[in-house]
Amino acid sequence: MSATAAPARREFDTDKLFLGFCLIVPLAALAIFFAYPLLTVVMRSLTESDGGIGLGNYVRILHAPSFWRATFNSLVMSLSTTAAVLICGLVVAYAVHRCRVPGRALLIGAVSLPLLAPSLVQGLGLIFLLGRNGIITKTTGLDINIYGFWGLLIANGLYALPQAVLIIGAALRAADARIYEAAEILGTSGFRKFIDITVPNIKFGLLSAGFIVFTVTITDFGNAATIGGDYAILATEIYNQVVGQMNFNMGAVVGILLLLPTVLSFYLERVASQRQFGSVSDSAVPLVPVFTPKRDVPMAFAAWLVALLPIVTVAIVVFGSFVWLWPYRFDLTLRHYAVKVAGGYDPLWTTVQISVVAGVIGSFMLFALGFSLQRLPRHVVKPIYFICLLPAAVPGLVLGLAYIFAFNVPSLPVYALYGTATLLAICNVTHYWTQGFLTTMTGLRQVPPTLEETASCLGAGLPRLVRDVIVPSMAPTLVSVFFFMFMRSMVTLSAVIFLVTASVSVASVSIMRLDEAGFTSQAAAYATCTMGIVVAASALMRVSLWVLSRKK
Amino acid sequence: MQLHLQNITKEFGHVVALDDVSFSASAPEFICLLGPSGCGKTTLLRLIAGLSTPDKGQLLLGDEDLTRIPARQRGFGIVFQAYSLFPNMTVAQNIGYGLKIRGKPAAEIKERVGQLLDLIRLPHLADRYPYQLSGGQQQRVALARAVAVDPKLLLLDEPLSALDAKVRNELRAEIRELQQRLGILTIMVTHDQEEALLLADRVVCMKDGRIAQVGTPSELYATPANRFVADFMGVSNLMEQSVVRQWAGHLLNGHAPPADYIACIRPEDIALRPGATGARVREVHFLGNLSRIRLEWPGGMLVAEEAGRTSLVPGAEVGIEIAPHRCAWVAPQ
User: Fold this and answer.
1) Torsion over CA: A254, A259, A260, A262 (sign)
2) What parts of the sequence cross the membrane (chain A) (predicted)?
3) Which residue of chain B comes nearest to A13, CA vs CA?
4) Do B102 and A6 touch (CB under 8 A)?
5) CA-angle at B266, arms to B265 and B272, nearest 5°
6) CB A264 within 8 A of CB A217
7) Per the structure, how many domains does chain B have?
8) At what angle do helices A507-516 and A520-550 cross, to 10 degrees?
9) Contact criterion met (CB < 8 Å) for A453 and B102
10) What count of other Cβ atoms lies within 10 Å of the Cβ of residue A499?
11) B160 occurs within a structural domain
12) Do A77 and A34 share a structural domain?
């Protein structure tokens, strides 16, 4: 047995170099593609029509009745949606996690459907059902006007429901059966247990879900564009200022003002989320609900009633895309799939490419950043962590607008990116950075520290540590982040709407254009194709995760 | 090969995890770092491994100053409590990983891995993945992986704590055997005094970030330096000098301990004389190989032990005898 020396000492520098690279590349990307564009929005909002700097734009906006109406509408819409979604979300999550109801996985799948669809699909589905030519409108002969508050409320609600169910569900899952057993032995009734144990335990989860729904709703553009009708909200106000009146600076002002409630709401969400999920005991005994007819039968009924809505809206869009002439001639046909306008299916393929690139760039960048953050002192990590939370608070439309200001400047080298699919991919990565970042950090934290330490003691440098230990250990997280970026990029509309050009466009914009032009069935066909790809991606993700989980 | 720790100090925020710790060890010693949780023993092991650096003090291996050398260049073998096998590698790949990093040819790695698999008696499991092994098997593989690169130092961080009692006993013996066969300087962290007594050539007993006593297991047991060590190393009867003077004055014959020192008498050193008087049996606990007897005695409660079963029953009067040379005088702190 000959003594085997540890690797030579100079390699220490390669570790430092590697770590620096992992840190600086994502940070530089955040500076160029997030901080700088947002600064341009601030600057443009302060640039007055005569070119001077001042608060004139703000003064003008704050004196415009249309702005106050949009603000009022946005707040009323977001608060109503939040209230409705919290109730429905609690019903579904409680039925799934705390009751014995049939088809629990299907329930979750049903409410999650809107996540797989472009946000216009809820609007389209409602139009097929309740629009002027909607099947319900026609069969009942009622005079329903779905365009406006109620239509938008339902569409926004459907869109936000899956996220609420996810968060409330996680809070409900964190229950400790022993507490309920102790209450049972003390003779506590089911209702009292709910009020005294369940509600206090999930209150921060409910708050967290509420703020998420509020943020999602107040920043949504797709639903408002399809079904909002004359109900003006802040997001459509930005769009109209920019696209309708070519008034970019006023768009910037509205964007900045829209940032205020979203940033606040997002901040409160983080606080609530930490309170809810910061202290889950490892030794908790999972709660397994026992079948209780007088609780479970009504809960099953209510939950399936809620879940029926997304199923029907999505199904009717798919069905409508195959129908000859909605709602007069129900012969099945593929004629709506022959999309001729707006570049045909080119934008769809562009979207797939953009989404793959976004998935690759996103998962690489987030991994590199997360990996380096784990090796830095706390006082350096904290501000970076904070910056990484910010993108989620920026409405997509504001980000898109920011990209116009930042990159549509011929005198700058970054102009080369303007109008390219690459910039769209980068914009999507930035838009969904926060969720990807939080997932990546969770994944990294789950790699046992002793595994890394063992490898270090055996002489592994950082690049080898990443390849041999960290990536294999957290492969499921990387796969999830890739597909998250991919699927979001497939369906997003708000950020990219300002960045598409005649030659480089995306699927959701095509759907919107087709719908605007009155080709509702073609819009449905286009949406169905998009959903098909996202569903396939989702299936592929599940298969990948299953394969990875077998070796554990 | 000699390891020297000189005045090592480490603070986490305002908490002093290690306070001026110094000791030396040389191959092929087996050293146990023993102490209750929070005493700094794991922090000390991590400093030796290079997984963290001390705020003050020096770490020398032979003539070489290792204080600022990162773990990967020290190349010590380490085994953690959580088995920490790479889940994506087979048993053979796990064991050969350190050699692979050092760029050894495949044939050499294969041969060495084969030797080690024989040594840990698991040659039939070479192609299994960690999740297919039991806890004891995983820990053996971790051990083989740690020694595969012929480290100058083997570090064990409570390697047996996660195992059930029977496997723990088996593996204890195997660790000791392997260590002696390889003649490798080994430092093991444990909070289990029985484990430390059984395995160690020398025990470093720690409390609150300081070394309470360093010595062979029998030194620590028979002549603890202070009350903490006496208490921590097994069961003991501790008596103030005033009590001794009043009720067992003969223990002070020929001894002149400092005034605040206290007497430490191990339970097995109290001989019980049935039929005589002086103490009364309060409780009898049968522990299998011995019986532990709690006694009421004018100087306070005493614990005595007898091998196997005892005929004593609660309430019985007994006489007690303590040989003066079995009494250790220990510092109060």
Assistant:
1) positive
2) 17-39, 75-96, 105-129, 149-172, 204-228, 248-268, 301-328, 348-372, 384-406, 493-512, 524-548
3) B70
4) yes
5) 90
6) no
7) 2
8) 160
9) no
10) 26
11) yes
12) no
Cα separation, A467 vs A302, in Å, equals: 49
Closest CA to B210 of B226, B233, B199, B231: B226
Is residue A148 in a domain?
yes
DSSP track, A196-234: IIIHHHHHHHHHHHHHHHHHHHHH--HHHHHH-TT---H
**In this structure, are residues A397 and A494 in contact, taking their beta carbons and an 8 Å threshold?**
yes
A43 neighbors A389 (Cβ within 8 angstroms): no
| Identity at B79, one-letter amino acid code | V
d(CA A462, CA B101): 12
Long-range contact set of residues B126-131: C-beta below 8 Å, sequence gap at least 24: B126/B90, B126/B91, B126/B92, B127/B90, B127/B91, B127/B92, B128/B90, B128/B91, B129/A551, B129/B87, B129/B89, B129/B90, B129/B91, B130/B83, B130/B85, B130/B86, B130/B87, B130/B89, B130/B91, B130/B94, B131/A551, B131/A552, B131/B87
Contact A551 B75 (CB under 8 A): no
Asked whether B151 and B74 are in contact (CB, 8 A), the reply is: no
DSSP state of B63: T
Q: Which residues of chain A have pLDDT under 50?
A: 1-8, 10-11
pLDDT under 50: residue ranges of chain B: none
Cross-chain CB nearest to B99 (options A4, A453, A552) = A4
**Do B155 and A448 lie within an 8 Å CB cutoff?**
no
Q: In B, which residues are within 8 Å of A19 by CB distance?
A: none
Does residue B251 fall inside a structural domain?
yes
Which residue carries 């209450």 as its tokens?
A183
Residues B145 and B106 in one domain: yes
Instruction: Identify whether residues B254 and B221 lie together within a single domain.
Output: no
Q: Dump pLDDT digits (tens) for B25-83.
A: 998 999 999 999 989 999 999 999 999 999 999 999 998 999 988 898 888 999 998 87
Of residues A2, A450, A460, nearest to B82 (C-beta):
A450
Same-domain check for residues B216 and B295:
no
Q: Do B49 and A459 touch (CB under 8 A)?
A: no
Q: Would you give the DSSP letter of residue A236? A: H
ipTM of the prediction: 0.84
CATH number at residue A125: 1.10.3720.10
Cβ distance B87 to A455 less than 8 Å, yes or no, reads: no
Q: Which segments within B13-112 are labelled E, that is strand? A: 15-26, 30-34, 56-61, 64-65, 77-79
Show the tokens assigned to A202: 């999930």
Domain residue limits at A470: 13-58+338-552
Pairing of strands B30-34, B202-207: parallel
User: Which of B1, B79, B101, B102 best probes binding to A when mutated, by most A CB atoms within 10 angstroms?
Assistant: B101
**Domain match, A37 and A150 both:** no
**One domain for residues B84 and B116:** yes
| Residue A23 Cα, gap to closest chain B Cα (Å) | 20
Of the candidates B196, B177, B183, the one whose C-alpha atom is nearest the C-alpha of residue B31 is: B196
Give CA–CA dist A322/A330, Å, rounded.
Answer: 9
Determine how many CB atoms are found less than 10 A away from the CB of residue A281.
9
Pair (B250, B196) in one structural domain: no
Position A168 scores a pLDDT of: 93
Say whether both A344 and A442 belong to one domain: yes
